[in-house]
Design goal:
single chain; 239 residues; alpha/beta; TIM Barrel; 37% helix; 16% strand; globular; binds zinc ion
């Protein structure tokens, strides 16, 4: 079986320097649709190039403020990745559809159909973010409107919580960021053990890949170990 790599692209300029933190926040809250420019998504580019060199595929979810430009789209295509929307305004079906309409208006983004939800219901993460986390609602919208919502944001507390349900939906995942993991389920070896028998979903944020060495090291370790155990790393589309 396989590791399904989910990548939530949260930060337009990353957060690895103070300037980038500020620039990210300004674009997120004031100019989300601005099409730019120097430094935009360079941290993501670095991560995709790493994945492409390693033969690792994944599903990349973009907020409107981190929509892929042509360079990113080319890299995603080159690596055989899937991409979609990282949903922020999930207040109503209307706001959901409006966010899709905006996302589809970016060049070459019209065919995207898969989405994940930004935030897990605890904090309001920006001006356009609806913080409440309601996965049942998203599953329903996906079914009604022809979209795919393959995984939720639950933090698995043990290996069996990584299993998909009878509809193929993964409510929980394993976070590559060590600080986001459940206290009782932190070991990458346990994830690899399960992934030999069935598909499991892991989640990483490119801003943390760049800014946090522990996250990056654990990602490198996971990829290296998956390779040596012959466990493919794939997108939701490839499963
Ligand atoms: Zn997010």
């Amino acid at each position: 079986m396989a590791i399904i790599l989910r990548v939530d692209v949260d930060k337009p300029y990353g957060k690895h320097t103070l300037t980038r933190r500020i620039a990210s926040k300004i674009k997120e809250d004031f100019f989300p649709l601005w099409k730019l420019h120097t430094g935009y998504l360079t941290h993501l580019k670095e991560m995709i190039i790493f994945c492409n060199n390693q033969g690792v595929r994944g599903t990349f979810y973009h907020r409107l403020c981190t929509a892929p430009n042509q360079e990113i789209l080319n890299l995603l295509k080159e690596g055989g990745h899937q991409f979609g929307l990282h949903l922020e305004n999930s207040k109503s079906k209307e706001s959901f559809l409006l966010e899709w309409e905006n996302f589809h208006s970016f060049p070459n983004c019209l065919n995207a159909k898969t989405f994940s939800k930004h935030g897990s219901g605890v904090h309001k993460l920006g001006k356009y973010h609806y913080p409440i986390y309601e996965p049942e609602k998203y599953i329903q919208w996906a079914n009604e409107c022809g979209y795919e919502y393959p995984s939720g944001n639950g933090i698995a507390s043990c290996a069996s919580e990584l299993y998909e349900d009878e509809n193929g939906y993964y409510p929980n995942l394993f976070w590559i960021e060590p600080s986001y993991r459940h206290q009782g389920f932190r070991n990458i070896d346990e994830v690899l053990f399960v992934a030999k028998k069935r598909n499991v979903v892991v989640l990483i944020h490119p801003c943390n890949f760049k800014a946090d060495s522990e996250t990056r090291d654990d990602f490198f370790l996971l990829i290296k170990r998956a390779k040596s155990e012959k466990i493919p790393v794939i997108s939701f589309l490839n499963q």
